Amino acid sequence: MESPAHVASLPEDEELQPWGSPRCPGQHPGRLEGAEYAEPGAREKARPKWGNPMQFLLICVSYAVGLGNVWRFPYLCQMYGGGSFLVPYIIMLIVEGMPLLYLELAVGQRMRQGSIGAWRTISPYLSGVGIASLVVSFLVSVYYNVINTWAVWYLFHSFQDPLPWSVCPLNGNRTGYDEECEKASSTQYFWYRKTLNISPSIQENGNVQWESALCLTLAWLIVYLCILRGTESTGKVVYFTASLPYCVLIIYLVRGLTLHGATNGLVYMFTPKIKELANPKAWINAATQIFFSLGLGCGGLIAFASYNEPSNNCQKHAIIVSIINSSTAIFSCIVTFSIYGFKATFNYENCLNKVILLLTNSFDLEDGFLTASNLEEVKDYLASTYPSKYSEVFPHIRNCSLESELNTAVQGTGLAFIVYTEAIKNMEVSQLWSVLYFFMLLTLGMGSMVGTGTAILTPLTDSKVISSYLPKEAISGLVCLVNCAIGMLFTMEAGNYWFDIFNDYAATLSLLLIVLVETIAVCYVYGLKRFESDLQAMTGHALNWYWKAMWAFVSPVLIVGLFIFYLSDYILTGTLQYQAWDATQGHVVTKDYPPYALAVIGLLVASSTMCIPLVALGTFVKRHFRKK
Amino acid sequence: MEWIDGTSLNAENAFKVRLSIRTALGDKAYVWDTNEEYLFRAMVAFSMRKVPSREATEISHVLLCNVTQRVSFWFVVTDPSRNHTLPAVEVQSAIRMNRNRINNAFFLNDRTLEFLRIPSTLAPPMDPSVPIWIIVFGVIFCIVIVATALLVLSGIRHRRRNNKGLPGLDDAEDKCENTITVENGIPCDPLDTKGGHINDGFLTEDERLTPL
């Protein structure tokens, strides 16, 4: 569900800002029925268990299914050949997704501890991996709630008639519409001007927008409400956040398929473009999408599995969870493409109507004479009969093409808040559809936030030092408060540019590295044979040769490949660039990041990846001195 | 334009009008004939009569010309002497003031009855004194604050009760132990504490790790 940095995707045809969606989120680390859990260091307490294996399954599914399934996968599908993208996607699922998911679940179930404890058990030099997971989760939680802020903002604005993003506001003397809104579209205007109040570049910070700040505070209050009691409260929340998105998606599927022009979008999507299979970017993006979508490396999966019965068949669960995750992505792809089809058809017909009006007015033809069907022949007739006048009018005649409308590929927040809202405003009873849609986004995002929040809180509440001074509610409150304060950065006028930085760089390389170290640690440090015999003793099933082959060779090679690709991409593109909104022109322009922004990017990546070697070094030094 | 022979009328005081009757009314569209033109001239004259200095404007002072199939035509308003045309600014402001009446006379709106070069005053959007989103926000905010306060207070009360009743036991674990036995119905697995953990007592540090 989360999506990797747009660097990897290198979008070719972006009309709107190409945001990838965040990693790690999508987790709903569901809860045990009100049970507290023991973590490393508290071995005298019994470890709580899931009430039944179904809960564990549901929680893993909630964790994996998130915003990325909804707004990243359809984009990839469109960019890389429609129906034929499913081929690399499914191959990567089988080769990369399932083995790595099974590995994490198996580690958690075997070690019966959270991420920090589990890796410390495998090797004290590797407890940095757990700490790196914690740092990544923290960075993600800082910026991810901003998406919920926007969902809340749009949700609250959906209770008006007409929807505020469906009409342009009037200009000063009420003779026309606001200039920026005319140049762009009303949905883009509402997003860039009313929601973000975006500045022209990242250097111009501007002020904190009080409306966004209010919504951010509310979003963090809701997160606090869900996690403050720990497992008790989150357990009940997760049933809701896990099921509601599916309900809304089904409703939207029915509505989407019955929209006028939906079939255009579906045909466009499912028509395979076989030659895209030869494009290496398609395979790389399939691999990264599977990787980040399952939420690997964030520590959440290990935590869930640690509450399992030792004899639980986590192999079966790993397969089921990954299949459900991918099916949800494909399902939401169908919904998205029917909406695309509707929007494209609507715009195409609008364009045709504009051309008809232009010709009717210029040549004073009878009103209603020109229709879409006779447009071409009448154009030819006019060109031959009034050549001079026609040549005057000709530059203003736009070439309306359904294909080019369908080709506008968008992902991330651009898809959710600009494209979808444009489609929704044209539906009947648009308020209802708008409320449903943003409520779905909010529950998907909230579930992820709750999961990430719990992933951060678990080590903190288990640390003896902290929990002796502060009760659980206070720790949760402090974490939420700190995150909210840092999150105010994203409510400033340049906040969206900083959001993009966090979104693209905070978790991508780090997660790849973490999972790579995890795989190598299990196979070579702990020993694959030893792990195999542990699993056999634990679950009673023998480990299939397929998993062994994947863990030992294929998956590490794949991850190293992805890693090299990302790094070479960063290096080759030279200076990193971003999309800035130009109010005077009404579209985005590409700009370079200033040096301090690049420094922040470097810091983000380093803060989590450096944990691994630093902690290893620290442990080595500590041991060395202890021996002396 | 030659409406009045010999007199050159100032073309910049003339305005083009465009009607899209079929777009607006579909099947109920009426035919544009001379009677409709008469009505139009009457409406324009009516608008001019509302201007303080032009109360004497008659229908015959409004002249139409170049009616096309579209339907579109030009019109101009002359003064009583029929020698000059009224300045464009006056005509503009008069039409703007009475635009709604003119539209309604023809069952059209600003978009289907266009006066080129006379911009229409767009209706301002409904602007309630308190934006609706703030009301919704306030409601949700209060609910969340109340729920949070309730949870926090009940937690504090629970802890205080535990501290009074059973000092020495950690409250969180106590609650956890109770809920485990209540919720799952199965007591915590006695073997569970050491299950899957490496017993440090038996292995030395070096042996615990597989050599790199």
Automatic annotation (TrEMBL), chain A:
Any one GO cellular component localisation term in the record: apical plasma membrane
Any Pfam family hit: SNF
Subcellular localization: Membrane
GO biological process entries: glycine transport; L-proline import across plasma membrane
Region Disordered, annotated ranges: 1-25
Signal sequence segment: none
Keywords associated with the record: Glycoprotein, Membrane, Metal-binding, Sodium, Symport, Transmembrane, Transmembrane helix, Transport
PROSITE patterns: NA_NEUROTRAN_SYMP_1, NA_NEUROTRAN_SYMP_2, NA_NEUROTRAN_SYMP_3
Membrane topology: Multi-pass membrane protein
Residue intervals passing through the bilayer: 56-74, 86-105, 125-146, 208-227, 239-262, 282-307, 319-340, 435-457, 478-499, 505-528, 549-568, 596-621
Residue sites binding Na(+) per the record: A64, V65, N69, S293, N325, L444, S448
A molecular function (GO) term: proline:sodium symporter activity
Protein family per UniProt: Belongs to the sodium:neurotransmitter symporter (SNF) (TC 2.A.22) family.
PANTHER family: SODIUM- AND CHLORIDE-DEPENDENT TRANSPORTER XTRP3 (PTHR11616:SF44), SODIUM/CHLORIDE DEPENDENT TRANSPORTER (PTHR11616)
Protein name from the UniProt record: Transporter
Biological source species: Nannospalax galili (Northern Israeli blind subterranean mole rat)
